[in-house]
# Entry
Amino acid sequence: MLRAPLATIFFGLLLVFSSKAKPNGKDKKAKQVVPDIECDARAGKISFPEFIVRCPSSCRETKEKVYGTVVFASISSICNAAIHNGVITNAGGKVIVKKMAGQEPYKGTFANGIRSLSLPKWRESFTVSVGKPKKGVIYPATLESQKEHSTTSPTTPAPDPTTTTSELTTTTTTTTTTPPPTTPTTTTTTTARPRAAVHKVRDAGNSHPYLAAASARQTQNGQAKGLHQVVRSGSAFAGRFPPRINPGARRPEAGANNRRQPSVPATSDVSNSEPDTGYTWSNVDTVDSPASDPRPEISEYERWYFGQYPPQPADTDSGPKHLPETLHTRVEPVEVWKPEGNPFDLDLSDRGKDPLPRVPDTQGNTNCKVDIAFLMDGSWSIGKRRFKIQKDFLSEVSQVINVGINGPMMGIIQYGDDPVTEFSLRQFSSSKDLKPAIDKIIQKGGLSNVGTALFYVNKHFFSDANGNRGGAPNVVVVLVDGWPTDKVEEASRLARESGINIFFVTIEGPDDSEKHNVVEANFVDKAVCRTNGFFSLPVTSWFALRKAAQPLVKRVCDTDRLVCSKTCLNANDIAFVIDGSSSVGTGNFRTVLQFVANVTREFEISDTDTRIGAVQYTYEQRLEFAFGQHNTKADVLNAIRRINYWSGGTSTGAAITYAAEKLFSKSKPNKRKIMIVITDGRSYDDVRAPALAVHHSGVIAYSIGIAWAAQDELEYIATDPDKDHSFFVDEFDNLYKYVPKIIHNICHEFNSQPRN
# Structure
């Protein structure tokens, strides 16, 4: 009777053991853990070169910005880039992100409900693909965030670039409290499990102000959920020393060898580069205690300007300092390091380094918020005595202008055969600090190559790393003894197109008998922002130079007249596509032309500034005038006035295609392409395909409908978001009301682009 139960038990045990048996003696493949991110998470904030993430739903509604197509700038939202590329839908999903070197330019397009923007260049790129892990690769289950500022070089050797596997550590943190007077201690144990890894390439350069501000907010809001729980901080060692910014601008003491910054930076070694993060990474993380903000009283701008941890005043307590026993990811300044101490005690080379930035003690003249670079003449022709007069003049200007973080910021470049940055914009935050720095400048010698110096300023000086603030106008003041020894026209043109206002202060310029010695005739008119006398200041004698300080400061602080800064007004190719159908009528057509003229008047017109073109259409299309055909504002306005009313049907779609072929195909690469379509009725042909084609080619389209225009067609034509690019007017006579709105939107869209 017992045989049946025994057989049943035996059979059950057999099934249990067989189910637990591992086929071929191998472990089951570990399941990939996919970390969640928020819709606004940007690729540049995550340190891994390749990783997998899961995007939530409804990211498209957040309208986070995306820059580029297929290959995106690292400042872009990962989730919105994935939606734009068709990798996921608005319902969310898994995405694999792979980083790569930066490129230029990034082209803006419209796809899958996401409008990506154009961007001239960015330091790092990334691509997105379907979130299906590659065979044999386990992606990081926990993401590490990138820091914002560079510190000292890591003391641990960098990993071998050819490494194909590495250790991904997991951290377990336990806290034990012993009886008083001892303090609670945290014991951190790490266990390692193998994963496939990709060599991490770190790009050089400092971060954009937006990223610095985001980092400050992340530090202050360490308890926030979502992305802040997934993205962790890096090394506990990195960041203990205050950052040293802009290598190469520290001036030597008297008698020391001259150590100057080269005119063109050498190619950076990747292992020693300064990327967005600038920090080394640790395999130990703790998330139980969020990092506290050591300087909560400073503003968001100061946090970017001086870094997350500005230098503290020297501690009067000279007693021994004890490092905390608890290992956290929070980074703190090491108090034992003093600015007045010998930096060689820490094996930190002082060669070619800037003095530490100071906590600002002045806000500066808030009515003169400009970023100014002075090009001082260091050529041999000037002599030591005149060079001293030039330094006294710069000292006087620095005191009159009242330097401060909310006012003007000032840097100096000395030029001879080639230029050298004496100090950058961010190095000194008050006038009293500038004066002794100017006094220490040593004459460089050489020729007076102003053109070479202007090329250098345009390419290297006005950068975020050097303290350029983006919202403040960029000004260059050139001091030259006599005349330049090279040509300045091309370098000046490029600088103007970049939004730089050039002033020329010529001391003892060439007289009639000397003009045959000048390399480039009328060099001042070819260099300055505008040839109206406002941007040039001739000084008859070196001994009269100091008297020019007040007039010069008054001019550079008149921001309303710094027209070369208004780059939204001088960096466009604008095509007007004008409805000439019979429903418009002759009188209303003249009203439309008046509207076109009113918009045109707001822009700086020339071949190097904004160019205007116009197309009139009915069933057919006619090119009224092309880009660059009229290169002065007066000529363009006269050409608009001469346009004759055509009359006929309404084929708006064909007109958009015609404008793309006849106008935008001949646009310059450094110009923004803007199309303004004006129509009063529904089109006889389809507008969707032509509009989508010009969007994909990078054209920013505005649509203006009058009276009987179809709202759906206006929205198809306009670039997203429609509310900023599509307008409806009930009567022709009300067109003029929309001129300020269109100009404002064009400039706002231009200025919202981040600067690299």
About this structure: The domain at 371-565 is CATH 3.40.50.410 (Rossmann fold). The CA atoms of residues 519 and 729 lie 56 Å apart. The first strand starts at residue 50 and ends at 55.
